[in-house]
């Protein structure tokens, strides 16, 4: 599992090179946004349960067929599994946000996920919608907490969205 710094070091070490201008700029921007990343993670941590609950309600409000007979989140067991998955996405998004690297998502969340979802009939596009709803809620709360630039908040949610929806099995 890597963060922004260890990823950069790995790339330059493989090439046997000193950090160049580009690397220095990357490092500067990572450290410059460091406090904001940690603050944002703090905002999410303090209201994670409510973010997941709110996002779930919105998702099922938009796509009520998911929780009707025949829907993949129908029955309390599957409803709970769905919210648990949303909680996983939120928690790992905060790790990736702090790390400034999507590596943790590849390694811990996305590996084999599509195959699992396909074999269980968990629909991908509503899952992706759930991830995007959480992103919007998090961005709003982070902005309300007075953190000016929230662009790094998008990154992990959009990355999971892309990887889940575009990758061939
Ligand atoms: C930390 C990394 C990690 C992830 C991401 C993960 C996902 C994950 N979600 C699962 C199931 C599931 N996932 C969902 C999710 C949904 N169904 C819907 O209709 C919605 C669109 C969606 C919620 C947004 C459901 C309903 C199940 C249970 C499916 C079943 O057992 O029939 C399963 C199968 C095993 C289980 O039920 O626990 C896995 C492995 N597990 C992990 O360890």
Characterize the structure shown.
By secondary structure, the chain is an all-alpha fold. The protein has 2 domains: 1-32, no CATH class; 34-166, Phycocyanins (Globin-like), CATH 1.10.490.20. The protein has helices at residues 4-15, 21-32, 34-62, 76-99, 103-110, 113-120, 124-144, 151-166. The protein starts with a helix and ends with a helix. The mean pLDDT is 96. It binds phycocyanobilin. Phycocyanobilin binds at residues 66, 72-73, 78, 81-82, 85-86, 88, 108-109, 113, 116, 120, 122-123, 126-127, 130. Phycocyanobilin (CYC) is lined by residues 66, 72-73, 78, 81-82, 85-86, 88, 108-109, 113, 116, 120, 122-123, 126-127, 130.
Small molecules in complex: phycocyanobilin
Query: What distance separates the N and C termini?
Result: 23 Å
The global form is: globular
Name of the CATH architecture of the largest domain: Orthogonal Bundle
CATH level 1 class label of the largest domain: Mainly Alpha
Structural class: mainly alpha
What's the SSE pattern?
HHHHHHHH
Tally of contiguous helical segments: 8
- Please, what is the average pLDDT? 96
Helix content: over 70%
Task: Tell me the count of domains.
Answer: 2
Give the amount of beta strand, in percent: under 5%
Number of strands: 0
Give the radius of gyration: 18 Å
Largest sheet: none
Low-confidence stretches: none
